[in-house]
Amino acid sequence: MPNFRIVALFFLTLHFSKTVSAQEEQAVWLDSMHKNISESVLDTAQWFDNFFANENLQEDQKALGEVRLRLGIEPRSRSLEEFEARLKVRVKLPNLKNRVDLILTDFDEDQDDKIGSSRNSQFSREDSINLALRYKVSPDSGLSHRIGFGRRFQYYAKSRYRDALSLSNSLEMRYDASVYYYNRDKFGTSLSLTFDYDYSKHLLLRYHNRFEYRDRSNDWLWQHSWQGFKQIDDTSAVIYGYYIEGITQPNYRLEEHLVSVKLRKQTKRNWLFYEVEPFILWRRDEHFSASYGLALRIEGYFGER
User: Fold this and answer.
1) Which of 34, 117, 128, 170 has its CA at a distance of 20 to 30 angstroms from the CA of residue 283?
2) CB atoms near residue 68 (< 10 Å)
């Protein structure tokens, strides 16, 4: 397990860089690091795209690649060294008319963006490390298909359709449905429905529902969440959330619920963010006894999309 002190030191370094003398040195180091990583991401994207180049056609667009990296600690009562690391890499391939993307992630993109220690281990943590090619008939199509490797390096194929419908000037409904096949987990399907309501200029309310079925476990995972996104200013926002999750076997029952308040703020650089999120978690395997925690994260974006 990654060392708690390493991540804590990362946060302390970011904090103390606000002093005048250290700020300039930190600025040079951060900007240089971001430039080098971004250039490496774009060079790799272009190198991969060149495999599909057609000598008889001249493609004006350059290949784009984006990396999202998030590191954090989520200590809570009963588990003081919870560590979170998330990576997502996406490469757009103009030589394939931008209809094919290369995607690498180490987390389930369909899951709510909530505390890592709250996720049901049967359904989420084994979804990590996913490498796939995603194909769309056109770049703006709601229907996509994937082939790749995921869930303990199983090969899989997945088709998904997603779309949005405006119900009024302030209410939008988003939905998606997918079906997939993994060589060991066999068939599965997932359905989700989300409502976004613009309560005011600076407050968005969201109600999210998700259901997933898997052959391997022969049951359904269900999730519901209620969130409020409040913008404080141009660089910061607060997200209030309540999340519940359960399964249908051996009976339809609640497995856990979570309440949290997340402060997300952009630093002086538009590619670097930090989050502070106090939370309370109740889990069935802990007899629904309240567990109190505090999540601290930093998140960086590299490359271009």
Assistant:
1) 128
2) 17
Q: Tell me which residue of 64, 47, 11 sits closest to 302, measured CA to CA.
A: 64
pLDDT value at 62 more than 90:
no
Alpha carbon separation from 162 to 52, 107, 178, 183, 227 (Å, rounded): 28, 20, 9, 25, 21
Closest alpha carbon to 204 in 165, 172, 176, 164: 172
What is the C-alpha separation between 228 and 242, in angstroms, rounded?
9
**Pairing assessment for the beta strands 236-247 and 291-303 based on DSSP bridges:** unpaired
| Cross-strand bridge partners of residue 227 | 206, 241
Burial 202-233 (b: 16+ CB within 10 A, else e): eebbbebebebbbeebebbbbbbbebbbeeee
pLDDT at 201 over 50: yes
pLDDT (tens digit per residue) in 218-240: 899 999 999 999 999 999 999 99
Residue 166 in 3-state DSSP? strand
Cα four-point dihedral sign 34, 27, 269, 116:
positive
Asked, as a colleague might, if the bond just before 94 is cis with ω within 30 of 0, I would say no
Question: What is the spatial distance between Cα 77 and Cα 56, in angstroms, rounded to a whole number?
Answer: 62
Rounded Cα gap, residues 241 and 79, in angstroms: 21
